[in-house]
Amino acid sequence: MKELKHINKYFLKYKWHLLIGVIITIVARIFLLFTPRYVKEIFTVVETYKKGLESGNSSLQAELALIIFYIIGAAIIAGILSFFMRQTIINVSRYIEYDLKNEVYAHYQKLSLNFYKKNRTGDLMNRISEDVGKVRMYVGPAIMYSINTITLFIIAILYMYNEAPVLTLYTIIPLPILSVAIYKLSKEIHKRTTIVQQYLSKLSAFTQEAFSGISVIKAYGIEPQTSANFDELSTNSKQNQLNLVKVEALFFPMMILLIGVSNLVVIYIGGLQYMDGRIESLGTIAEFIIYVNMLTWPVATVGWVTSIVQQAEASQKRINEFLKIEPEIKNTVEEHTAINGDITFDKVAFTYDDTNVNALKDISFSIKHGQTLAILGKTGAGKSTILDLIGRLYDIDKGSIKVNNIEISKHNLTDLRNSIGYVPQDAFLFSDTIKNNIKFGKEEANDEEVIEAAKLAHVHKNIVKFNNGYDTILGERGITLSGGQKQRISIARALIKDPEILLFDDCLSAVDTETEEKILKNLNQVTKGKTTIIVGHRVSSAKNADKIIVVEDGRIVQEGTHDTLVNVDGYYKHLYLKQLSEKSSVNN
Ligand SMILES: Nc1ncnc2c1ncn2[C@@H]1O[C@H](COP(=O)(O)OP(=O)(O)OP(=O)(O)O)[C@@H](O)[C@H]1O
Questions:
Q1: Could you identify which of 142, 181, 244, 537 might form a hypothetical disulfide with 192, taking C-beta atoms 3.0 to 4.6 angstroms apart as the criterion?
Q2: 115-128 residue pLDDT tens
Q3: Is residue 504 part of a domain?
Q4: Considering Cα of 513, then 515, then 517, then 523, what sign does the dihedral take?
Q5: Where are the transmembrane segments (predicted)?
Q6: Distance set, CA 61 to CA 74, 458, 542 (Å)
Q7: Which ipTM score applies to this complex?
Q8: CA–CA separation, 90 vs 21, rounded Å?
């Protein structure tokens, strides 16, 4: 129960709902327990009548009618109260499920990128859905059935003991056996459920990845292998489900057997006692048979509830594992910090935790507010890493990064990120309209602003050609768009934000050089007064920059402007000449 302590704060939040639920449950059980007593009453009335103590038939009918009326009345009241019992306790479990899901989701969002690299998406999804669902079972049904059992047990045993103490003893003897048997069975069910759960987790992680990468799977024609892998996983999953069903199937037969045995005990011992005259009325035996049947299910639920609690504990443990993870990147400054866009890197070194790749070894440069910096270099040189560090997606190991002459860790993290318009290398679009994808950069933007941003990113003409224009829904990851269109929508998203700092990570790689020139020309206008960093592989995207740096293996190997760098031997001049000759060969 250590892990489930986490839920206590929610119990406290909904304490009044729960208290009302508990009271209703108790009252409902009291009404339910009227039935066996009235059944005994019926026997007594009939027996008394038969003994000829009653004077007339009509009185017997009237008395029986009254008792039946009471039984029906008590059953209706117990039914109505049971409805409200569920409406309170089960509703609370749904509220807590909702709160817990939101808590986990909000926490996921705070966690750093490293967390997402270390954990598979399917696993994250499972913990927020399946595991939270299991914890709900503890919050709702487990608590409801426990109160139910305790109340029913106390009241019923009191009534029974009062009526026939010895018979009570014999009646309840089989119940602990039932409880222990169900507990053992539930434990086995739990063990097998955990295995089923693990396989479901693997299956959903696999499926999620396969569908995200469906275009690659199709392009490589590896559907048969993927299907075979899926088949293997789902066969294992099915086998485990069958193993589970086998033990689950024992549950009801075992209960029916024990109820049968208990009934026989009541009839046999009750019969003997009736013959001995220790029990006055046969009604007592009927009453006890109803008690036995009423108590069997709650007693069985003791084992079942124990298993629910164990499962919830295991699930909450998995949830807590994630909730305990502290975000690596923390906002340490609550007050707002102004950002105008001066950026300085001083001897920055950075190693990715998960791969141990020392991506940046010694990077120093500075760029003033309103200037443009271009970063070039071979693939894997560390260019994207530099951009990620400006947005503080990771914290550096050595050196310092300052924005506005203040260490970035001393900036309010939200302000820092809000001041950045970032266009990633891999444009990600949500399954939503084009308009909303662009407005993602500025939710309150109006249609004119959206169109303006799309025009600047040179994608407006493409969008209006779609039947639904800006309201065109994009498939998952925008698969209905070309790579270049996706990149340009991603650029529009950054531009509409009108941020102080614009970071373009090789975001024109999928557009032709002609469109690139047009976009760059537009960018020249928009980026006036903003600090802009363009990462690329083409000289065309760097030549107008105020400063160019060439990165190689995590270090700056060249620094200058286009005019200075084309005159020095090195990567930039080489690239320039190569791209110049490619261009002239295309023109010829
Ligand atoms: N998220 C990450 N986790 C671990 N290692 C990473 C991660 N991103 C990049 N790396 C590694 O860090 C090094 C620098 O990568 P980076 O993406 O910064 O290079 P780049 O210059 O932008 O390359 P490209 O031009 O291909 O985009 C590479 O060796 C890469 O494998």
A1: 244
A2: 888 887 878 888 89
A3: no
A4: negative
A5: 16-34, 64-84, 142-161, 167-185, 249-269, 289-309
A6: 20, 91, 103
A7: 0.95
A8: 9
